[in-house]
Design goal:
Blueprint (H helix, E strand, L loop, with lengths): L2 H18 L5 E2 L5 E2 L2 H12 L1 H16 L20 H20 L5 H29 L3 H8 L3 H21 L9
Antiparallel strand pairs: 1-2
Helix pairs in contact: 1-2, 1-3, 2-3, 2-4, 2-5, 2-7, 3-4, 4-5, 5-6, 5-7
C-alpha cells in the first residue's frame, strides 16, 4: 500500500474520532464526559491495525493540543491535559495501538470476536489504565478511588466494544482489503 493511501486512512480515522465527539455527551460529576470518541479509538485499532491506528489517534491528540476543539463538548488546547480527562486523552494513541496489536495477533479468530476482544483489551483496559491514572493525579484521589469513579463508563464501553466488533466484521465482509489489521 502506498504512503498516500496510509495518510488518507489515518486522516479519515482522525476525523472519525472527532465526529464521534459531536454525539451528545453526558458529563459526570467528576468532570469526565461519557462520549462516543472511545469507539473511534477502538475502530482505529480494529480496522487500521496497530501502527496506523496509533498514528490516527496521535494525530487527533496533536490537533487537540494545537487548540482545535475536537474533544467532546468542543474542548481543545493544552488546558485539556490538566483536566480530569487528561489521562484518557493521552491514552488514546496507546489504546488505539494496543487494540490494533491485539487484533493483528488474533488472526486465527473470527473478525467479530477478534475485534471485540481487541476493543476490550486496548480500547477499555489500556485506556482505563491511562484515564484512572490521570484522574487520580488531577483530582488528588487514590488509584482505587479513581477506578471506582470510572466504573460508570463500563456499561457504555462494553456496548462500544461490541459495536466495534460488529462494525469491523461488517466492513471486513464488504471490503476485506480495507481492514488493514487483517492484511
Amino acid at each position: 500500500m502506498n504512503s498516500e493511501h496510509n495518510v488518507v486512512q489515518i486522516a479519515l480515522f482522525t476525523a472519525l474520532i472527532a465526529a464521534l465527539g459531536l454525539v451528545p455527551q453526558l458529563t459526570l460529576a467528576f468532570g469526565v464526559p461519557i462520549t462516543a470518541q472511545s469507539l473511534g479509538i477502538m475502530l482505529c485499532g480494529t480496522v487500521l491495525g496497530a501502527r496506523r491506528g496509533g498514528l490516527a489517534a496521535l494525530l487527533f491528540i496533536g490537533l487537540v493540543a494545537l487548540g482545535l476543539p475536537l474533544l467532546a463538548g468542543g474542548r481543545g488546547g493544552l488546558g485539556v491535559f490538566t483536566s480530569p480527562t487528561a489521562g484518557f486523552a493521552l491514552g488514546f494513541p496507546v489504546a488505539a495501538f494496543a487494540t490494533g496489536w491485539v487484533m493483528e495477533r488474533l488472526s486465527g479468530v473470527t473478525v467479530v470476536l477478534a475485534a471485540g476482544i481487541a476493543a476490550v483489551l486496548g480500547g477499555v483496559v489500556v485506556l482505563y489504565a491511562f484515564g484512572i491514572s490521570g484522574m487520580a493525579i488531577v483530582l488528588g484521589r487514590s488509584l482505587t478511588e479513581a477506578a471506582l469513579l470510572v466504573t460508570a463508563f463500563i456499561p457504555g464501553d462494553a456496548v462500544k466494544a461490541v459495536l466495534a466488533g460488529i462494525i469491523t466484521a461488517a466492513l471486513y465482509r464488504a471490503r476485506p482489503h480495507s481492514v488493514f489489521s487483517r492484511s
